Amino acid sequence: DGGITQSPKYLFRKEGQNVTLSCEQNLNHDAMYWYRQDPGQGLRLIYYSQIVNDFQKGDIAEGYSVSREKKESFPLTVTSAQKNPTAFYLCASSIWTVREGQPQHFGDGTRLSIL
Amino acid sequence: GENVEQHPSTLSVQEGDSAVIKCTYSDSASNYFPWYKQELGKRPQLIIDIRSNVGEKKDQRIAVTLNKTAKHFSLHITETQPEDSAVYFCAASRGNSGGSNYKLTFGKGTLLTVNP
């Protein structure tokens, strides 16, 4: 059964702590994305990656870091520099084509809160 | 960069009525326009999408129209049912032209409530 798996479902962060959110996909998609969703807001892009070992900053990258060592995996680290991390984090993936945008498929999300 | 405006932010209809949600975009190079439905606490799910080479697309009770000249696109839901209640997001993407690398820019969402 193909899809995107995010873990954990709920995560709590202490002051000054870095936490890592997991995202794994078995759809054989080249591109992967991380979004942040706040109440009443749309989805805001944090980071995205088109290919292994390459990624680009999105619109709100400050206080976050990512890696893309494997095609299937795109973990997101919320660092202590992110002063307002409480949000719903969504991972997505898509195929990659040159000329046109493609549908993005989302995971179930991780809800991050501050202790 | 791309800017997507979505209206209304909330919409309440009676069961069986139609619902229309409208979005405008700023980047004339955008060529892909998906719509997502998100139920409370769940993942956004793609419900319909349209590309810039067509003006309208329909899938059962859901349709999307695109006006490239005016840079706006709309979601139409007919014969609404209580299970249509959710937040709906529009988005726009220009693909990999101009170095923007197929990012999706989302509207802020419309909370649709269908009253039985």
Briefly summarize what is shown.
The complex is a heterodimer of chains A (115) and B (116). With 115 residues, chain A is mainly beta.
What can you see in these coordinates?
The complex is a heterodimer of chains A (115) and B (116). By secondary structure, chain A is an all-beta fold. Chain A has strands spanning 4-7, 10-13, 19-25, 31-37, 43-51, 54-57, 64-66, 76-78, 87-94, 105-106, 110-114. In chain A, the strands form two sheets. In chain A, strands 2, 4, 5, 6, 9, 10 and 11 form a seven-stranded mixed beta sheet that branches. In chain A, strand 4 (31-37) and strand 5 form a beta hairpin. Chain A is globular. Chain B has 116 residues and is mainly β. Chain B contains no helices and eleven strands. In chain B, the strands form two sheets. In chain B, strands 2, 4, 5, 9, 10 and 11 form a six-stranded mixed beta sheet that branches. Chain B has a five-stranded antiparallel beta sheet with strand order 1-3-8-7-6, with no helix packed on it. In chain B, a hairpin with a 2-residue loop joins strand 6 and strand 7 (62-67). Chain B is globular, with a radius of gyration of 14 Å. The termini of chain B are far apart. At the A-B interface, strand 5 and strand 10 of A face strand 5 of B.
Q: What share of residues are in beta strands of chain B?
A: over 45%
The oligomeric state is heterodimer
Q: Structural class given helices, strands, pairing of chain A?
A: mainly beta
Number of helices of chain A: 0
Helix content, binned percent of chain B: under 10%
Question: How far apart lie the N and C ends of chain B?
Answer: 41 Å
Radius of gyration of chain A: 13 Å
Global outline of chain B:
globular
Number of helices of chain B: 0
- Range of helix content of chain A: under 10%
Radius of gyration of chain B: 14 Å
Q: Tally of extended strands of chain A?
A: 11
Shape by Cα distribution of chain A: globular
What summary fits the major beta sheet of chain A?
7 strands, mixed
Helix and strand pattern of chain A:
EEEEEEEEEEE
Low-confidence stretches of chain A: none
Please summarize the sheet with the most strands of chain B.
Answer: 6 strands, mixed
